[in-house]
């Protein structure tokens, strides 16, 4: 029963991320690099694929590890390749931390 509740919580969290990320993507100007913060993915602590308006965003364990040490880090979203069914896939690229100069 506990596992079922956890699975339900995960689905609710993913739905919230989807809704927020869709607004995020739609608000970006074309040609501008899209950046994603930990808040944009609902402070997820689980790696996985997150459905967005026209594809899937891949969040890996390494991204979550960086967000845990640098909570304000923003990753660049990179279109990767369409899946065999035509769904666009996105991956997270390099990151920056607002307010830090390298």
Explained architecture:
There is one protein chain. With 102 residues, the chain is an alpha+beta fold. It has one domain (2-96). 34% of the residues lie in helices and 30% in strands. It has 2 helices and 5 strands, in the order αβββαββ. Strands 1-4-5-3-2 form a 5-stranded mixed sheet. Strand 4 (74-82) and strand 5 form a beta hairpin. The chain starts with a helix and ends in a 6-residue tail after the last strand.
Global mean pLDDT: 76
Strand order of the largest sheet: 1-4-5-3-2
* SSE arrangement, N to C: HEEEHEE
Helix content range of the residues, please? 25-40%
Principal-axis shape equals globular
Q: Give the structural class.
A: alpha+beta
């Amino acid at each position: 029963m506990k596992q079922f509740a956890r699975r339900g919580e995960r689905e609710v969290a993913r739905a919230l991320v989807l809704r927020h990320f869709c607004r995020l993507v739609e608000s970006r100007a074309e040609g501008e690099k899209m950046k994603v913060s930990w808040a944009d993915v609902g402070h997820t602590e689980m790696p996985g694929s997150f459905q967005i308006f026209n594809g899937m965003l891949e969040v890996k364990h390494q991204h979550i590890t960086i967000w845990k040490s640098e909570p304000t880090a923003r990753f660049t979203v990179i279109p990767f390749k369409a899946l065999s069914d035509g769904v666009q896939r996105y991956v997270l690229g390099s990151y920056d931390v607002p307010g830090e100069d390298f």
